[in-house]
Each structure stands twice: as structure tokens, then as C-alpha cells.
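Whiteboard transcription, Tuesday session. T.W. wrote the C-alpha cells on the left side:
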């Protein structure tokens, strides 16, 4: 029931940033699936991620398009993105159910229910449950693999458990390469369980070791068939993590602290403390179960922390296991609290057993109700912080995106044939209007050898890029200076502020591509660097009238959901 309720709670967020793709990585799945349908070429030609999720999405699209649910276009439509997000949302709901089963299997039914409650409100899995990315499916396959590992650990060994575990691990790797660590719980369960020695045991382990790569290759066959392309893109991703991505670097050579901080923030202070308590409590109760449960999240944090780049989405796969331990800690606190309150109530009531219907019996009933209410309030207090953060994220997902308002303005005010330089997180005007010459770049202002904005009529900047380079890291200093110089020398003609009320997402600023004369001094910002133009530096008379209005309110109908 909790899984279904959570699915319904998150459902409206599927139209986040509609009718535009919400995050840059979503196109990897959605556009690749549509291209497979249009060309019949099963090679995704993109190996940032393995191919399992792409093939599943292509199969679903192939069923829905003939039914008229999806339009048959040369490229993906907004509805294709919504369908992809719906599959991710379904995976996240199944993960809640599977995690509840895992907690119940290992530590009892109350822990299972508490695990579902924690996962339902945790901000990290909530945020990535309505965008078309692979992390929710990684979490699902990792939990299923650990469930199989628990069967191997706690029950008489059977070959089918190893086969099922191999399928789950292979599918996990087929969703994301780092999910190879889902094999760790199975290996630990084999060696910690009964019957881990002897020829039959080694034969079962051999089945597992052989089937895992076979399942991965079945889900990503072009890792072999297009070996050169696969190796090249895999190497590119590895190098990006090593070198660092602006806005996603820890400032050092590793990111262990950043990853642990992300996990802590995904639960809040109370649940994070309960998770630590849960690890200690579970280790005291049954060290073998605790080790098997910890294998995947510890391995994942250790692997990701070895690189300077860190992305919160990479930790989504670890959150179900952290939620289980938080539930164990919560259950331990509840048991201790109920015991303490019961002793307190019993001591105040005196000895002896009251007869039914007597005043003492009624008083005991009221005292039990009091104990239950105190326990319920304690549980609610632990869940309140993450629930409020998740609720705010879901609210913002329903607010119209600033890119929609910016797109409306650009289509109305940028003449056909104009050259537009747009940052990656900017409005997708190139998709909406083919009669504008649009170039999309990750960073519009490089500030190195030459001004990359030269020759463009308009330059569209996204606050996402500026926020990435605003970190106090020496390697980003030239970019910060380049942005300050650009803003000082170019005219701002329209701005769409994502205030979280009228518009969400990242604020969008539109400048004229031709530098203007600086006729007014500029005020330094808090960092001592040149700030945005003064109001006296506002739009010229030649600016379209709608530019000032765009600051006050988004265009009507923007972001319809």
C-alpha cells in the first residue's frame, strides 16, 4: 500500500518541465530508444549507460505508438519523455516494495514496513523517481540481487537461487556499469552461508560467475559487436570522472566526504543517526546479515569516492539499504521507548492485575493508548524532515519551468534566420523552431583564446552553468571572470527568474550578442567581482517591449501540465 501511495504522490511530477526534457541525461535513453524504432538499428551508438533500459523503453514505445498514445515523429516528442519517466516511477515503486520485503526477510515485518516508509519520503530517491535516468532501476536490481543473496545465506543452498541472483546482477550491470558491485552480496552470502565448501557449492558459484556476464551481454550486446565505440565512450566517461566535471567536483582527488554527505542529506539528521544505530543493532543481532546488507552500499561509496567528481544520482542505488538500517534503528528506538514508557506507567499504577471494567483497567487502557501515541509521534518526527524536503521537490516539479517562458519570448522576439548561442540547460529553441540558427554548447563563455559569442545575435545563459563554476575552486576562476566580463559588456534584454513560485528550474538570461559600450559604472557583488548591470543599464529603446514584461510573469499557458 505504501508503494502504491508513493507512486500516486509522485505521479504529477512526471510532467516536470513539460513539454521540454527536464535534464540533459534524459535524451540518452529517450532519443536512443526512438532512433532504434525509426531506423531498425539496434546499436544505440551511445554507451554512457548500458543498453537494457534503452531496449525496454524502445519496446514500450513500440507498443504504445500503434495505439496512438505516442506520436510517430523523427525524434522524440515530449510524450516519449513522459513514458520514459513513468517507467522510472514504476521502478521506484517496485523498489519500495522489494526493499520492504528485504527488511522484513532479514529483520522482521515491522522493519519492512518502516523501510517502505523511509524510502517513500527520502529526498534522493524521490527526486530521481520522475526523471528518465537509470538509477532507479539500478536500485531495484540491486535490492533483488540482495534478496537472492539472503536466500543463499539463510536457506539450504539451491542452484536456482544462484541463477536468479546472476540474472539480477546481470540486469543491474545492464542498467549501469557501477552496479557490478551488486555481485558482492551474493559472493559474501555464498562464503558466509552453510554448504559453501565442496564441489556442489563451487559448481553453484560457477553458474553465478558465468551467467552474470552473459546476462550483461544479452542486455548490452553491442559492447562486443561495437567494441571500439564501446571502449571509446567508456574511456571518455572514466576520464570525465577523473578530471572532474564543473559543479560536481569535491575540490580534492577523492569524493568520499561528498558522497557520505549526500547520503546523510538524503535522509535528514534523525534518520541518518537511526541508520548508524541500525547498523550497530543489526551487527549485534546477526553479523552475517548485516555484512551481506552492507556489501553493496559500502562498495558503491568506495568506488565512487575514488574519483573527484561526484553526482548525487549515483547514490540512489545505495538508499534502499540505508533505509533498511534506518528502519532497524527506528525499530530499536521504538522498542526501547515502549519499554521505558510501559515501566513508567506500570510503576505509577502500582502492582496487581485490575479486573475487567474496573477503574484501574480503564486507566491501563488509556495509558497504553498514551504509549502508542508517543511512539507514533516519535516515528513521525523522524520522518518529518525528509518528507518536507521531498514534498517541496515535488511541488517545484509542478511549477512551470523557466525554459518554457524563455522559449515563448525567443519565438516571439527573435527574427527567423537569427543566430542564437544557447547553453545546454537553456530553452530548446532549436528544437521548437528550425528557422533559427541555434548552437547549443555546455558553456557559452569560455574566456580563453577568443570570445565564443562573436557572430551571434543572441546569447542565452542558464544559471545552472554559472552555478557550477561559482564554486571557490581555482580551476574555475577564468570562467568566473569570463562570465563577469561578458555580463559587463553585453546588453541584457530578457530575464526569467526561477523563484520557485511562478517559475522553477534554472533562471534564464538572454543577452544581445553584440557588445555594447559601457556607459555606467558597475557594482561589485559579494565576492568583489563585477555584478549584473545596474537598472540604468537596462534595455535600449530598440528592445522588444515584451522583454520587460517577461520579468514580471511567465507567458500564459507556459508549462501546462
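and on the right, the sequence the group agreed on:
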Amino acid at each position: 500500500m505504501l508503494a502504491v501511495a508513493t507512486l500516486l504522490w509522485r505521479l504529477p511530477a512526471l510532467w516536470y518541465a513539460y513539454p521540454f526534457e527536464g535534464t540533459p541525461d534524459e535524451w540518452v535513453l529517450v532519443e536512443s530508444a526512438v532512433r532504434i524504432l525509426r531506423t531498425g538499428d539496434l546499436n544505440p551508438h551511445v554507451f554512457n549507460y548500458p543498453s537494457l533500459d534503452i531496449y525496454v523503453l524502445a519496446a514500450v514505445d513500440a507498443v504504445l505508438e500503434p495505439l496512438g498514445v505516442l506520436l510517430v515523429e523523427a525524434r522524440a516528442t515530449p510524450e516519449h519523455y513522459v513514458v520514459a519517466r513513468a517507467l522510472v516511477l514504476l521502478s521506484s515503486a517496485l523498489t519500495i516494495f522489494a526493499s520492504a520485503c528485504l527488511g522484513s526477510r532479514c529483520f522482521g515485518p515491522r522493519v519492512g514496513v518502516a523501510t517502505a516508509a523511509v524510502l517513500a519520503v527520502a529526498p534522493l530517491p524521490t527526486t530521481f523517481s520522475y526523471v528518465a535516468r537509470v538509477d532507479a532501476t539500478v536500485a531495484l536490481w540491486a535490492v533483488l540481487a540482495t534478496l537472492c543473496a539472503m536466500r543463499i545465506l539463510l536457506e539450504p543452498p539451491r542452484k536456482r537461487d544462484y541463477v536468479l541472483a546472476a540474472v539480477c546482477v546481470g540486469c543491474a550491470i545492464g542498467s549501469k556499469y557501477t552496479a557490478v558491485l551488486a555481485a558482492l552480496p551474493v559472493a559474501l552470502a555464498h562464503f558466509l552461508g552453510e554448504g559453501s565448501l565442496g564441489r556442489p557449492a563451487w559448481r553453484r558459484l560457477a553458474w553465478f560467475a558465468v551467467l552474470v556476464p552473459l546476462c550483461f551481454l544479452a542486455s548490452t550486446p553491442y559492447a562486443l559487436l561495437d567494441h571500439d565505440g564501446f571502449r571509446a565512450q567508456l574511456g571518455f566517461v572514466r576520464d570525465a570522472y577523473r578530471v572532474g566535471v564543473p559543479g560536481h567536483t569535491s575540490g580534492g582527488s577523492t569524493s568520499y566526504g561528498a558522497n557520505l554527505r549526500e547520503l546523510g542529506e538524503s535522509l535528514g539528521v534523525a534518520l541518518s543517526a537511526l541508520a548508524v544505530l541500525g547498523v550497530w543493532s543489526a551487527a549485534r543481532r546477526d553479523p552475517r546479515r548485516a555484512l551481506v546488507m552492507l556489501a553493496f552500499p559500502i562498495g558503491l561509496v568506495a568506488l565512487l569516492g575514488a574519483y573527484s567528481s561526484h553526482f548525487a544520482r549515483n547514490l540512489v542505488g545505495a538508499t534502499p539499504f540505508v533505509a533498511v538500517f534506518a528502519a532497524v534503528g527506528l525499530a530499536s528506538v521504538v522498542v526501547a521507548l515502549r519499554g521505558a514508557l510501559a515501566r513508567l506507567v506500570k510503576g505509577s499504577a502500582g502492582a496487581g492485575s485490575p479486573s475487567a471494567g474496573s477503574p484501574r483497567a480503564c486507566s491501563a487502557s488509556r495509558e497504553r493508548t498514551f504509549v502508542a501515541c508517543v511512539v507514533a509521534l516519535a516515528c513521525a518526527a523522524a520522518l518529518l524532515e525528509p518528507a518536507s524536503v521531498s514534498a517541496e521537490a515535488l511541488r517545484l516539479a509542478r511549477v512551470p519551468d523557466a525554459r518554457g517562458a524563455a522559449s515563448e519570448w525567443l519565438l516571439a522576439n527573435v527574427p527567423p534566420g537569427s543566430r542564437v548561442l544557447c547553453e545546454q540547460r537553456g530553452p530548446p529553441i532549436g528544437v521548437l523552431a528550425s528557422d533559427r540558427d541555434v548552437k547549443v554548447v555546455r558553456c557559452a563563455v569560455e574566456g580563453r583564446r577568443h570570445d565564443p559569442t562573436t557572430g551571434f545575435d543572441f546569447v542565452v545563459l542558464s544559471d545552472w552553468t554559472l552555478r557550477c563554476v561559482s564554486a571557490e575552486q581555482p580551476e574555475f576562476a577564468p570562467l568566473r571572470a569570463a562570465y563577469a566580463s561578458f555580463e559587463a559588456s553585453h546588453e541584457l534584454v530578457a530575464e526569467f527568474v526561477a523563484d520557485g513560485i511562478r517559475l522553477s528550474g534554472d533562471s534564464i538570461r538572454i543577452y544581445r550578442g553584440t557588445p555594447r559600450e559601457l556607459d555606467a559604472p558597475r557594482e561589485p557583488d559579494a565576492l568583489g567581482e563585477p555584478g549584473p548591470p545596474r537598472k540604468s543599464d537596462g534595455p535600449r529603446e530598440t528592445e522588444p517591449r515584451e522583454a520587460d514584461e517577461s520579468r514580471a510573469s511567465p507567458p500564459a499557458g507556459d508549462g501546462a501540465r
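Someone added at the bottom: Strands lie at 419-423, 437-441, 458-462, 492-496, 508-512.
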